[in-house]
């Protein structure tokens, strides 16, 4: 559907594609024509370096290994090295498939980083505003249902453009039926 819409994709390669995931991971040996881009961020008492490496799948994989991925043009590895203020380090790697050419590694890196920014911001709102991490709903689909309701409420409240914070908008809506109606556009 993405390709048919004439759009590009950058998709995280997870372990549920075990064979492809293992082959891509093994391919990052440095023997192939690679394109790299790196960033360095200093924030929250840590230094985080990200090294984005991309190359063409045709150099590494048989076509049969990736034929189900339409327009696959690059395999991407993101290596993160985080150095904390106490001197400890953490290193991890994540792999991606993309329809963008390997030469566009900087743009791919920007998309990957942008996605995590959205995810982190959403989680922060759900945790801080709705205290989602303190929720003890565990039975059946209760946690999943509550998460969906919280995201819907967040989307509705976020559309309102006034000087109140999201938390204050929720509080005001709980106390003022007219404000609630305005939020819901009833």
UniProtKB/TrEMBL annotation:
<protein>
    <recommendedName>
        <fullName>Transposase IS4-like domain-containing protein</fullName>
    </recommendedName>
</protein>
<dbReference type="InterPro" id="IPR051698">
    <property type="entry name" value="Transposase_11-like"/>
</dbReference>
<feature type="domain" description="Transposase IS4-like">
    <location>
        <begin position="4"/>
        <end position="154"/>
    </location>
</feature>
<dbReference type="InterPro" id="IPR047647">
    <property type="entry name" value="ISAs1_transpos"/>
</dbReference>
<dbReference type="GO" id="GO:0004803">
    <property type="term" value="F:transposase activity"/>
</dbReference>
<dbReference type="Pfam" id="PF01609">
    <property type="entry name" value="DDE_Tnp_1"/>
</dbReference>
<dbReference type="InterPro" id="IPR002559">
    <property type="entry name" value="Transposase_11"/>
</dbReference>
<dbReference type="GO" id="GO:0003677">
    <property type="term" value="F:DNA binding"/>
</dbReference>
<dbReference type="GO" id="GO:0006313">
    <property type="term" value="P:DNA transposition"/>
</dbReference>
């Amino acid at each position: 559907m993405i390709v048919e819409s004439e759009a590009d994709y950058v998709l995280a390669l997870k372990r549920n594609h075990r064979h492809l995931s293992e082959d891509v991971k093994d391919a990052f040996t440095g023997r192939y024509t690679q394109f790299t881009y790196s960033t360095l961020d200093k924030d929250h008492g840590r230094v985080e370096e990200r090294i984005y490496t991309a190359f063409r799948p045709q150099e590494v994989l048989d076509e049969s290994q990736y034929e189900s991925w339409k327009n696959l043009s690059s395999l991407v590895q993101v290596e993160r090295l985080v150095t904390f203020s106490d001197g400890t380090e953490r290193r991890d790697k994540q792999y991606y498939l993309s329809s963008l050419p390997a030469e566009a590694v900087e743009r791919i890196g920007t998309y990957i980083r942008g996605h995590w920014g959205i995810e982190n911001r959403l989680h922060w709102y759900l945790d801080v505003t709705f205290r989602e991490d303190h929720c003890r709903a565990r039975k059946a689909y209760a946690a999943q249902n509550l998460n969906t309701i919280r995201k819907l409420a967040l989307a509705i409240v976020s559309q309102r453009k006034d000087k109140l914070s999201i938390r204050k908008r929720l509080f005001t809506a709980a106390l003022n039926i007219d404000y609630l109606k305005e939020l819901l556009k009833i």
